[in-house]
Design goal:
By secondary structure, this protein is mostly beta strands. Helices cover about 10% and strands about 30% of the residues. The protein folds into two domains: about 110 residues, Rieske [2Fe-2S] iron-sulphur domain (Rieske Iron-sulfur Protein); about 120 residues, GMP Synthetase, Chain A, domain 3. The radius of gyration is 23 Å and the shape is elongated. Bound molecules: FE2/S2 (inorganic) cluster.
């Protein structure tokens, strides 16, 4: 662990506010909230977005690229598409200056549940533990209809059409950024089957699906893949996908398989 490096003068950074500073050659996001300073690697663990440029709300900063949120007190990732913490560093206020000391270790590589707890900056109040994953605003997007696309290879193997077989089919649909299927990610809130009035003997399938965040860039692809995959079953007359944001998705909804795949223990 290196020495503390003076990075700013007290009062120089607005409250709330954020800026980028350089410490030992690393770019560090410095935050100032309610009189307390915090320092994180200026690197979003999803795809390298600059956290110091993100929107700051209380003790949460949203990555400006795809919206993943991080707790500035600990570096913990609070929402998708980031699943790993970014590294938090030690901060102190002394002699009219703000000082940062880099931590070694693997904040960037560590799973959310094991993200480091920020040490108190010398002479500064200790930040409380991070809050739960934030709620997304309630949004209901509208339905999509059956496009009747080409059959997915294992549609017939899913067996007779029922809620379970639809969920089994949906395991073929993977989040393009996380490479985990949408069922194990906990994105499927409900599956409803209704006898088709237009095609006797077949079913209309309605899938209630959420997103990891309201601005999820993978949304259109996930909706399209879901429709195509379910529509491939021979007993399906049509597919409707409804996007629901209430209750908001949280990492708690992931199965153990998904956690294993993402390296979250
Ligand atoms: S780079 Fe930060 S959310 Fe994608």
């Amino acid at each position: 662990m290196g020495d503390f490096v003076r990075v700013a003068t007290v009062g120089e950074l607005s409250d709330p506010g954020s800026t980028v500073v350089e410490v030992d050659g690393d770019l560090i996001a410095l935050f100032h909230v309610e009189g307390v300073y915090y320092a994180l690697d200026d690197v979003c663990t999803h795809d390298g977005g600059p956290l110091a440029s993100g929107e700051l709300t209380g003790h949460k900063v949203a990555c400006p690229r795809h919206g993943a949120k991080f707790d500035i007190r600990t570096g913990a990732a609070l929402s998708m598409p980031a699943v790993r913490a970014t590294r938090a560093h030690d901060v102190k206020v002394e002699n009219g200056g703000v000082w940062v000391r880099l931590r070694s270790g693997h904040g960037v590589d560590g799973p959310v549940a094991q993200s480091p707890v920020a040490k108190p900056a010398t002479g500064l109040p200790i930040a409380p533990p991070p809050a739960a994953v934030p709620a997304s605003s309630g949004v209901v997007a509208v339905p999509a209809s059956n496009e009747g696309s080409a059959a997915a290879p294992s549609a017939a193997a899913a067996g007779a059409l029922c809620e379970d077989s639809v969920r089994e089919l949906l395991k073929q649909v993977k989040d393009p950024e996380l490479f985990v299927n949408i069922v194990d990610l906990g994105l499927i809130y409900g599956v409803t089957l209704t006898p088709s009035t237009e095609t006797p003997g077949k079913q209309q399938v309605s899938v209630d699906m959420t997103m990891t965040s309201p601005a999820c860039p993978a949304g259109p692809q996930l909706i399209g893949d879901t429709k195509r995959t379910v529509a491939a079953h021979p007993e399906v007359a049509g597919v409707e996908v409804r996007i629901v944001m209430e209750p908001p998705w949280t990492p708690d909804r992931m199965t153990d398989d998904a956690r294993d795949q993402l390296g979250i223990f």
